[in-house]
Design brief:
With 442 residues, the protein is of the alpha/beta class. It is 27% helix and 24% strand. It is built from 14 helices and 19 strands. The protein has helices spanning 77-86, 105-115, 137-140, 165-174, 186-191, 204-207, 210-227, 239-245, 258-262, 268-271, 284-295, 311-314, 331-340, 346-361, and strands spanning 5-11, 14-17, 20-23, 25-29, 32-37, 43-49, 54-57, 59-64, 89-94, 122-128, 146-152, 179-182, 231-233, 252-256, 301-302, 377-387, 406-416, 419-423, 426-427. It has an 8-stranded parallel sheet. Helix 4 (165-174) crosses helix 7, helix 7 (210-227) runs parallel beside helix 8 (239-245) and helix 8 (239-245) runs parallel beside helix 11 (284-295).
Length: 442
């Protein structure tokens, strides 16, 4: 039987969990979920009225770029994680293309040290796979705070790149955990440089075309099969890749992004370089086929690919403009708006943002609301209508491609290991972020 006294009780809300959606209270002791169910007769140091709200397992954004160390005029670990918790995100996986690159034990330890008790959410950092560290990835991917190995097969922001099959083979030969890939063919990108039209960001998806993505993903799958390795294909942007990856789910998991599910090439006319991303936002037919892949279960997780640049940098004429946009703070409201529109069920959203990441990456004590798990909770109002604005964005760069977009569904509260770090748009707690733990690295 549940005990009678807790540190915190969330009372009167509807819990959306891996086992269904129903009215249930949640009791918290310390950093841990201690009871689920009818706690109307229990007492607590703090009782939070969640009437009219839904309680979700804490949202995990498994792809962000917080720029630290390096170009912290765009973002740093504190501002990026502040944006995360304001958007209802309780944990993030941060990428290795910082300066210096996160490719050594020392660089990883430095990031973990910078983040601990300074980030507002929990965190893990990818280690960049390179030709130089390929033989050591089995040790690197097990270090404290490591999300695993990340490989760029096509050049994007920063200088991390392993374009050749031999280099990828060597990394996967030694990897033991699921390795994540930016899958664009560097050789084709170089061949097609003249497809870029100066001043016209709409030529970005012409340069980085479907074949650039699909060719690389086919190469990657062949190597993964040969090496009997598990891989994770990041930010899939083409309908062709979705169809191809559906036949290879035994070795490959699939991430898609809110921007590839929401935006289309039509919006280059109004948003210009603000939606310039790698891989690109494409025409509506790809968006619809990505949605089909999500509906059919081909897609495993959502990642925002939060990759901020300043407005001054984005104002440079294409192709001198950098690729990347904010996303960690808008992931929850943009996707809840799709829930409100009937495009996505709430339980599928939960699977994509908590249960899915926990399952793929073997995260310890996260990913569902269960007794003994970390008390990571995202509290949302599914009926609340708000207009996303640049003013709301906490990222240091201070803008969003969704400025002016009205959405239905909004993050009201964020709990990280029992601490109420955000409520009604205000960050309440001191920075308490800790490294995420992984079962394969314990």
């Amino acid at each position: 039987m549940p005990q009678k006294t807790y540190d915190v009780i969330l009372r009167g809300g509807v819990l959306a969990n891996q086992d269904g959606i129903a009215p249930r209270d949640v009791g918290i002791i310390g950093e841990t979920i201690a009871a689920i169910g009818d706690l109307s007769q229990a007492s607590a140091g703090e009782i939070i009225d969640c009437a009219g709200l839904h309680i979700l397992p804490g949202v995990i954004d498994s792809q962000v770029h917080f720029r630290e160390p390096g170009p912290t005029h765009k973002e740093d670990l504190e501002t990026g994680s502040r944006a995360a918790v304001l958007g209802g995100v309780t944990a993030v996986f941060e990428m290795p293309n910082t300066n210096p690159l996160t490719t050594t034990p020392e660089a990883l330890a430095e990031k973990v040290s910078r983040a601990t008790s300074r980030m507002h959410c929990d965190f893990a950092f990818y280690v960049g796979g390179t030709h130089e560290n390929a033989r050591h990835v089995a040790e690197l991917e097990r270090l404290p705070g490591a999300a695993g190995i990340k490989v760029f097969m096509g050049s994007s922001t920063g200088s991390l790149l392993v374009a050749d099959d031999l280099g990828v083979t060597e990394i996967l030969r030694h990897a033991r955990r699921r390795a994540a890939f930016h899958s664009e063919d560097e050789y084709r990108l170089n061949e097609r440089m003249n497809e870029r039209i100066p001043g016209d960001p709409a030529s970005h998806p012409v340069w980085r075309d479907v074949e650039t993505a699909l060719t690389c993903t086919k190469r990657l799958i062949a190597i993964a099969r040969e090496q009997r390795a598990r891989i994770h294909v990041l930010h899939v942007s083409t309908g062709e890749e979705i169809a191809f990856l559906a036949a290879h789910k035994d070795v490959a998991s699939v991430e898609v992004t809110p921007h590839h599910l929401t935006l289309s090439a039509d919006e280059y006319a109004t948003l210009g370089t603000k939606i310039q991303m790698n891989p690109p936002v494409r025409d509506k037919s790809h968006r619809e086929r990505i949605w089909l892949g999500l509906d059919q279960g081909v897609v495993d997780v959502l990642g925002s690919d939060h990759a901020p640049h300043t407005l001054d940098e984005k104002a440079k004429a294409y192709p001198d403009s950098p690729s990347g946009m904010t996303g960690v703070q808008t992931l929850v409201p943009i996707m809840l708006d799709h829930v409100a529109a009937g495009r996505l069920s709430l339980q599928r959203f939960v699977d994509l943002t908590s249960a899915g990441p926990a399952r793929l990456f073997q995260i310890a004590r996260k990913g569902r609301v269960a007794v003994g798990y970390d008390a990571d909770l995202t509290i949302v109002d599914l009926k609340r209508r708000e207009t996303i604005s640049d003013k709301w964005i906490a990222s240091r760069c201070g803008w969003t491609p969704y400025h002016g977009k009205e959405v239905t569904g909004w993050p009201v509260g964020t709990f990280v290991r029992g601490a109420r770090v955000m409520w009604e748009g205000e960050v309440l707690a001191l920075s308490t972020g800790k490294p995420i733990r992984f079962l394969e690295a314990l």
